[in-house]
What does this fold into?
Amino acid sequence: MFKKIPQNFLLLFLFTPLVLDLHFYQPYTSIKYFYFAALILLLLPFLFVYLNQKSAVWKNGLVQVVSIFFIVTTALCVLSLDFERSFFGDWQRFDGLIYFIFYLPFFLALIFFLDSKEIWLKFLRTHALVLSVSLLWAFGQRFSWVFFADKDASRVYALIGNANFLAHYLVLSFFLVLFLVYFDQKFKFFYLALAILIIPVILFTQSRGAFVAMVIVLVLLFGVYIIKIWRTSHKKALLTAFLFLFCILVAGQFLSQRFTHYSFQDTTTETRLVAWQAAWHGFMEKPIFGWGKNNFQLVFNKYLDTKIYKGQGTPMWFDKAHNQYLDYLVEGGLLGFGFYALFLIWPFIYFKKIQQKYGMQFSCLLFGGLLANLIFLVFNFDTIASYPLYFIYLALIYFLSSEHKNSTKDLQKKSVILFCLGLCLSLIVACFIFWPQVKGNMLLKEIYLSQDKNFTLSEWSEKVRKVDSLAPNYRTDLSLTMAQSLTELNWPLEEQILGLRTLLYYSQQNSQKHLLDAKSHYLTANTALRLGALSSDEDYLLQALDFYTNILPRLTQDLRPDVVYNLASVYYQLSLLHPEQKEDFKTKAIFALEKNIQAFPNSEEAKNKHNLILELFAQ
It folds into this structure.
């Protein structure tokens, strides 16, 4: 009876992809992580009880590798160049250790409590039902069904919020439901239908990484199937291979060019190559221990190849390499990458053992999913949509490859004490770490919607103060949201200046905390520029000038078009305050902009900004 409680809790984890609450900042990710963390905290007391009763588990190689991986990741965070970012992360990615570490108790709970085929069937059937809802929602978005329609959705993302994240979830689910065709034959036609429906939805996401991963693994699996047939009938094998190739050729005629034409000149490909190049340079600078978890943006900004700026474009501030292997290589160095590689490769050791116990179909489909995951991660990274599924794969491999004996002892006084200790730890973590973050996150969403709520300056400032007091480690999110809301609020000039002063205060504090983060300094510089322009205060303009000419060039490329144009804007604003030096300031501004044109001769944006500053000085 006692074990049934955590077993039912584990079913709730499967609903994570469906959880959505628009009252949260970054609602498609925030609420999912908070939901996942809350369930872990509820499970923690039960885990404490079984830690000593499942002593045999710790002798398993897979459990040891997973545990060591988390230990090494934690240790490397201590050596991080930006410890706060490594530990807490931000509310866009939730990639800090404080959230990542929860996957370890999740994995342990899976192997502790899902210890029979009946329980695993219940668990995986629940996943299939959740997957059904995600597929239904995806089809609704694609064909604009009234309840599911989203006019702003150019690519299908269901309730996960990002097309690539949904595609990753579906790739892992695809091989899992095919595995269930054999593992749970009672509903095999239902699982086959789900597998078939997953394929068009992956195409709806337009995720080329998922498409490539699926094609490669399916071709490999089909090759294994052909070899198996060949041993009994050459004719049947050749006919099957011919039919397979024919189906591929026919299907290829209906695919969009996004899946059939690949080019290094493609914008998405170019940006990834730029990020990968920066990652390699960053790794070579710190090859052993890396820069610290969640610190890829430091490397990207420092080694960005600005040739990517060719036309009208958004300033690039990547915080991920969009290649998880390079992320680990940069953030953890050879040490972190080595243990991550071991973490990914070790499960394949159990392939033969599962094949001998259950057959070729079981092992090929299960490990096909893991292989597809390895391929997908070349083009993207793990998220709350994919990581839980990956650990489900690991737990399932553990279950299928291990001998299961009912060795759990009766609950004793020691168990009650352990349960109480776990409960106390959960309450402390919930009350002092996560509940303030939940409240702060929801308040930040209100600041984000300041214009819709028509906040006054005092109301806005009070909410800013509360967010900072509740979640002081998330000033990056706070500063960015404040900056966005201030551009949309129609306050009188005096109130705009006061709002910008408030933003500058928090942005400066954030910059001081993240000394190597160019984006934090860039926001501070831009805020000082806006404030100086509105208030005609030379001190703010000189502060912005110092950032653009001294601080940012040490952290990022000094020829970034956005930095150059803002620098020219500072010179223009200074010329208004000192008309007698107008020609001197004009010369400095034009020199910077002409240098920018030389760096980006094919960029219309560089030429337009040059002409715009000339017109301003001519007035």
